[in-house]
Target: prolyl oligopeptidase
Amino acid sequence: MSYPVARKDDVVDDYHGTKVADPYRWLENPDSPESRQWIEAENQLTFGYLEKIPLRARLKQRMTELWDYERFSVPWKQGSRYFFFRNDGLQNQSVLYTADSLTAEPRVLLDPNTLSADGTVALAGQDITEDGNLMAYGVATAGSDWKELRVRDVRTGKDLPDIIKWVKFSDPSWTRDGKGFFYSRYDEPKTSEALSGANYYQKLYFHQLGTPQSQDTLVYERKDQKEWGFGGHVSDDGRYLVINVSRGTEQKNLVFYKDLKDPKAKVVELLRDWDAEYEYIANDGTLFWFKTDLDAPRGRVVAIDLRKPERKEWKEIIPQGEETIASVNMVNDAFLLNVMKDAHSVVRRVSRDGKPLGELALPGLGSVSGLNGKRQDTETFYSYSSYTSPPTVYRYDLKSGQSTVFKAPQVKFDPSQYETEQVFFQSKDGTRVPIFLSHKKGLKWDGTTPTLLYGYGGFNVPLTPGFSVANLVWMEQGGLYAVVNLRGGGEYGREWHEAGTKLRKQNVFDDFIGAAEYLIAQKYTSTPRLAISGRSNGGLLVGAAVTQRPDLFGVALPGVGVLDMLRFHKFTIGWAWTSDYGSAENPEEFKALHAYSPLHQVKPGTRYPAMLVHTADHDDRVVPGHSFKFTAAAQAAQAGEAPVLIRIETKAGHGAGKPTSKIIEEYSDLWAFSLDQMGVGRTQSVAGTQSP
Model:
């Protein structure tokens, strides 16, 4: 295969005495004429290759057919109104509806599909006033993390003049009287740095409804702490502004508060030690409840009285258990705990004084989301899904303890023909690691099954069972979809997470490689039939695995990956990831990073498996230069016949808000490429149709 020429420069950096070449540094600027030429040439090569795969059109057809089903979000209530999202099937963006009751005819409150012709403008967070009459909402364009806040009158469906710009990593939070909201923003960047410049010095503001942004009140900033981020949330009783203080993606935070009843009140530093994670749940006057992992790596619930905030005065309400607490809400004056047991959901209800009130019956090994509400509410809603069950929304009556189906999707497949099992294997150092295996019933394990191994392994993010049309299509082809719960994630609490960070990051890659070896040893699959996939930190995972063990995999699909581990912290919010990765500016951490950095571990003359790198030109989370430089290096190094291609999406970002049409196209390409490289699908049927 003839790849586009990528110029090599004599760029060399000195890291603590170690010289490191960076010949493709120029590709970090995606807008330079030379970069644009390279991007266009790569896309022409990639899409020209994909168009010749017979299975591609059939996969897209089937994926479009399956994706065309009505689906709903978990509803929530403000004032006397209910709010929920609905997608009729193939709408690029889900539409926000409101209704006066659960049985009333809903009406459209905001349809993001009308904001752009191609569906690349998305709704990005919202908050509704206590009386349900006004909504502050964010709008993001082309997948960017930047968003603009606007205000809509729920009663009329019309926008007010208020517009707030340069907001990132922040949602609005209304005061109880609905006269304004709190939000956080950064200073306006230079035009040339909007998508790549580092984001520092976030500030917390209050916007008075009906006034220009220039008159917004600065509530809190720290000129001495450029990395601190602030999230302001108004307590349910309207009395306090609870300020979550973060430092990048570190799983530790501070909590401050401000008494909104007193206009002259100062911000009070309640929890001011970077010693644990603290998550505000609710309050009863000055009594505040928090979920924390302080002295409890799997989580517990404590009560803190603002009048006696000393640690010796704290009261433990719910002690740490065997499972990891994922979330806690207070509804109907009791705690609703969503806990993880071996990476799947268990829901328990606990009284204010810590007494068990029962467990919610769930259909199987799946994930629960929702369970939101206010202290006085007698109902809540939640969604249940699994790898083979699309999300069903339930109404949970907290008086009777009964759950009833509120909205059940109808997907054009028979879930009884599929199954999920959970197995465990021992990683390189003996650690017990779980894998979810989902597939059609009746498959024979003879080493020939096309297998997609997916992982993430970072930032305390757990991978719990969830439904995906794309993964269902993979299983329809007779494929095995395997999800491994790696160290670095949040499945088993703080210790599990920290075992996959910084100098211990190699544990994550060892776990992933160990999962692949286990699947092969147990004859679920074999190297030619094994594809690995991951996005973002998971893209790093795939890049590290394929450079460390190029002999082990048949296909690699690194998506929007962090692939240059020496320079990631220099762009947008990349500096925030040093809590997980470490930094090349630290000599010891540099050695660890350099040892696994996918870009720097590409070795000329190596036979790499087939690769389809995928990224987006507007990704301002993990800038596309990571994928560009890695692809150029891998193409130059490839000694085998397998193709090394890159798919560069336009008018898209890191993934949030991506239109349905683009999602379908992307997965159709990824699956077609993978199955074609495995030699699958050229003579097999696709959902009843005969392929060439």
